Structure to design on (357 residues):
């Protein structure tokens, strides 16, 4: 396994995240059915594709996979609540949470091997801060993420146009605005409820929810975490989001700059600019996710990250190589002889004379 890790590390992609490297390694050895030989023409075509275009396409597609099932579930819930019976036969907050959770899992499974599977501007920024993701890629990743959510919102409007148009006409006939919590625009993005006038309170809730999700994401991406595998990571991350939907959706949460801004632009196109000005809330929905996620990942990096375990599992190397690792082990009180072997997973956990490691 160590040799396999070393071989894969020579690819120097640097951008494979969320267990994508491990997933690629697994798929290399997996054989289901015999397939036709890969032609040189196909290899040449795939090699000629611009890396930046593939990454942007994957990020946009991933955000679409995550956002579209969620807002479609919100649409079925909201539109059926508006029926004459006043009950929803096709939706609930429980359903909405699962729609977003499974959408996130599908997004990671489908697109993470290509782009790293960020799907959130705040996560992209955190990768740049903590994990060495190239800053020059950050702007086009964020643009692609917002674009994916925008396309999801447009497609939803097209597919539900008849029902949404009827709901819009009914709302206007009652003399009600189009932009409010539970109104037509709220199918696409978040608005505070009528009694939620304290922006400080909404800021705190959004910050807490985004921090909670951020810590779970960062823990799931930690290769030294023994409780997470490449197979489980997409579903764990999705469930973290669902948990917050189930707990706080009635208070108003956004959780993702791209998800909110992309669909809020669609809401402004179809329901008016009040989608951005309603109760001065939009800045909380759009922007709070970034500092909250930086705080969450910083909390994990500073207090819970174990880089020695990461090195030991072959997912990283000391910046000064084996010599630097030996020096660190010596300086921190471990015997130099055999220390590297101990870090790299010596099964008996002993170094020189049986000292516990």
């Amino acid at each position: 396994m160590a040799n396999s890790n070393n071989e894969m590390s020579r690819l120097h992609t640097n951008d494979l995240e969320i267990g994508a490297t491990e997933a690629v390694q697994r798929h290399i050895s997996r054989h289901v059915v015999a397939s036709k030989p890969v032609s040189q023409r196909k290899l040449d075509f795939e090699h000629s594709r611009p890396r930046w275009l593939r990454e942007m396409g994957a990020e946009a597609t991933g955000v679409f996979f995550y956002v579209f099932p969620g807002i479609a579930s919100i649409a079925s819930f909201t539109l059926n609540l508006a029926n004459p019976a006043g009950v929803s036969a096709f939706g609930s907050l429980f359903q909405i949470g699962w729609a977003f959770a499974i959408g996130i899992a599908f997004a990671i499974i489908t697109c993470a091997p290509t782009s790293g599977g960020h799907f959130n501007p705040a996560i992209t920024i955190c990768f740049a801060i903590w994990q060495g993701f190239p800053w020059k890629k950050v702007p086009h990743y964020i643009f692609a993420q917002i674009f994916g959510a925008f396309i999801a919102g447009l497609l939803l409007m097209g597919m539900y146009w008849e029902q949404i148009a009827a709901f819009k006409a009914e709302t206007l006939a009652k003399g009600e605005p189009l932009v409010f919590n539970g109104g037509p625009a709220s199918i696409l993005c978040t608005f505070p409820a009528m009694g939620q006038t304290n922006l400080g309170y909404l800021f705190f809730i959004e910050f807490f929810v985004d921090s909670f999700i951020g810590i779970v994401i960062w823990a799931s991406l930690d290769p030294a975490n023994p409780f997470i595998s490449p197979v489980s990571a997409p579903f764990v991350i999705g469930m973290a989001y669902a948990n917050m939907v189930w707990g706080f959706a009635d208070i108003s949460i956004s959780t993702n700059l791209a998800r909110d801004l992309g669909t809020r632009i669609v809401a402004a196109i179809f329901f008016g600019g009040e989608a951005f000005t309603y109760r001065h809330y939009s800045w909380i929905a759009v922007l709070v996710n970034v500092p909250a996620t930086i705080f969450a990942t910083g909390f994990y990096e500073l207090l819970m990250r174990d880089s020695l375990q990461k090195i030991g599992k072959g997912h990283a190397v000391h910046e000064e190589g084996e010599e630097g690792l030996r020096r660190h082990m010596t300086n921190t009180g471990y015997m130099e002889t055999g220390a590297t072997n101990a870090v790299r997973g010596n099964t008996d956990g002993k170094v020189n004379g049986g000292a516990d490691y």
Notes: Residues 348 and 354 are 9 Å apart (CA to CA).
